[in-house]
Amino acid sequence: MNKVFWGMLVVSSAVIVYSANAQLLSRSEMRPPPIGFIAGTVTDSITGDPIESALVRVFGGFEWDYDSTDAMGHYIILWLQLGFYDIEASKSGYITQVQPDIEVTPEDTIWVDFQLVPEGPFPCPYVPGDANGDGIFNGLDVTYSVQYLKGGGQPPPNICLCLPNGNLFAAADANGNCVFNGLDITYMVNYLKGIGPAPQGCPDCPPGR
After folding, report:
1. What's the CA angle centered on 77, arms 59 and 97, to 5 degrees?
2. 153/10: higher pLDDT
3. Contact (Cβ atoms closer than 8 angstroms) between residue 172 and residue 145
4. DSSP sequence for 39-76
5. Is the per-residue pLDDT at 167 higher than 80?
6. Which of 40, 91, 129, 202 would bridge with 112, disulfide CB 3.0–4.6 Å?
């Protein structure tokens, strides 16, 4: 009887140990994988102001998620599995921006900020008629423009790059037809003589801050 009893006890103990190990293994398999977070701020690239209600989306493999920015331009996306993601920020009136291959690491917050560029036209920092870029319009700008168009001077500063080709001298475009040529010099002279309107700049690149 003793041998039978001890044999049964050993078998029972083995079953209990196996059952406990199986439960531990099952629990470890059911344990959620490590996770990370992505957060940041979306702002206007020109003014630096926060952009509210911008949509920030995360793509990676079969997983995706999104959040909208608050009044301070902040967003946060939680519970992302580890790996690499493409982060996209968009808002009506702005050019969509994507930051690829952002790595999410265990139990860590990855900061990804965006500076969205407004869709043109948008204000550029120049004074209409200020061909030499010194911040004011006067007779020196006429002289500067004449020298350049005759091939003996420097081109007007290209302050405004809002057009795709980036070749517009917005400040020197005194008559507002988005082309810089001799007609702009005539326009400048007429204004300085008091017989014409003030320089206005190209409407595709309106003057502003």
Report:
1. 50
2. 153
3. yes
4. EEEEEETTT--B-TT-EEEEEETTEEEEEE--TTSEEE
5. no
6. 40
